[in-house]
Amino acid sequence: MDSVTQAALGAAVAGAVAGRKCTPKVLLAGAALGTLPDLDVLISYGDPVSDMVKHRGFSHSLFVLIPFSFLLSWLWQAWRPTRFSFTHLWLLVAACLVTHPLLDSFTAYGTQLFWPINAPIAIPSLFIIDPLYTVPLLLVLLASLLWRDRIAKLCTAGLAVSSLYIVWSVSAMSVIDSRVEQQLAGTPLAGQPVFITPTPFNTVLWRVVVKGENHYFEGLSSILDGDTEIDFLQKTLGAWPEQLGSEHQQMLERFAGGFIKYEQRQSQIVASVLRMGMGEQLAFQFALAENSNGWTSIEPVRVESPRGRLAQIPNLWLRLLGNQDIDANLCHVSECPQQSVPLASR
Fold first, then answer.
1. Which of 56, 101, 239, 295 is deepest in the core (most CB within 10 A)?
2. Which burial class, exposed, middle or buried, applies to 302 when counting CB atoms under 10 A from its CB (0-12, 13-18, 19+)?
3. 59, 113 contact by CB (below 8 A)
4. Does the keyword Translocase apply (predicted)?
5. pLDDT digits (tens, 9 = 90+) for 11-49
């Protein structure tokens, strides 16, 4: 999640754990602890693919954060004794640190909760920025500064609301998953890999990607849709040259769970991660090979994806409300170059 959300979560957790001993300084410390794991973005792993794949690695691991919380609590007590017992202080520090990667695990990026074990956790039920999750936390923190005798209760209430929102997001994703399963049943795509994630800033409108043999199918489904049939757009997956080995290509495949598309752009092969983004606006794209008398692997180069247009915002809102004349590229179906076709014909 974004830094503002993580800081708000850390502060609210600190307020709830500190109880009657909480002060504005404790909230500030909690906010700092809540953003600490993301400092790994300052580490360069040598190339853009490694930087992406290894983000949310060791600094988000429970096997690292829990021992680190003991060390940090001991140093804190030794440097500046507090009103907290060591156990109470450790619980506060550990809770602020650990809730950061736990929240991150509900996004499409995924989190290495058990690093060095390579088993990333991703339950993609939240967009990386979601005001409906963040705003309640910010409101209770603001209220805590006004009613300092109620900080713990306010923070606990804020955490309860935000946690219920996560429960809602997982439930909504389950509804969309059931729709997709029912629609794919009896078609050539039954049993194929499916990826479901919310569209920007909400948990009502969901993006669905189904991976076939040579194509992938992208569609949108809103909880408010009257007709639960999803209009999918068929797009080409492309392929990586079989004879061409590339460690970075394999890293991307593992990271994305196979949800990668390959395109030849001029003299290069560009790999795009389908898990993050929408339509042609995919957040992570890398040039991995070039053609110079035959394909050869190159050092990865980050390719900028097209930026979203402000004109798409009204379409996003209309589609969220259940207008099914808007497709996965967030344009009116009648205006789009690619038209959806029934799954049975694919």
1. 56
2. middle
3. no
4. no
5. 999 999 998 898 899 999 999 999 999 999 999 999 999
Contact by Cβ (8 Å): 239, 262: yes
Tokens read off for 323: 């207008």
The neighbouring-strand residues paired with 214 are none
Look at residues 66, 55, 144, 147 and name the one whose alpha carbon lies nearest to residue 99.
Answer: 66
Backbone angles phi, psi at 48, to 5 degrees: -65, -30
Which phi-psi region, left, alpha or beta, contains residue 87 (left: φ > 0; alpha: ψ -120 to 50)? alpha
Q: What percent of the chain has pLDDT over 70?
A: 92
Query: Strand pairing partners for 195?
Result: 209
Alpha helix ranges (H) inside the chain: 3-18, 24-35, 48-54, 62-79, 86-104, 131-146, 151-184, 247-256, 312-320
Phi then psi dihedrals of residue 2, to 5 deg: -70, 165
pLDDT digits (tens, 9 = 90+) for 129-157: 999 999 999 999 999 888 888 889 999 99
Distance between CA atoms of residues 234 and 260, nearest Å: 15
Identify residue 47 by its one-letter amino acid code.
D
Confidence of residue 118 (pLDDT cuts 50, 70, 90): confident
What does the block give as tokens for 19? Answer: 């109880």
Q: Which of 145, 189, 151, 124 is nearest to 20 (CA)?
A: 151
Count helices and strands (H / E) in the chain: 9, 10
Please state whether 298 falls in left (phi above 0), alpha (psi between -120 and 50) or beta. beta
- pLDDT range class, residue 343, cuts 50, 70, 90: low
Would the pLDDT of 342 be above 90?
A: no
CA distances in angstroms from 154 to 150, 170, 239, 269, listed in the order given: 6, 25, 53, 52
288 contacts 300 by C-beta, under 8 angstroms: yes
Residues 6+ apart with CB under 8 A from 59: 36, 37, 38, 39, 40, 65
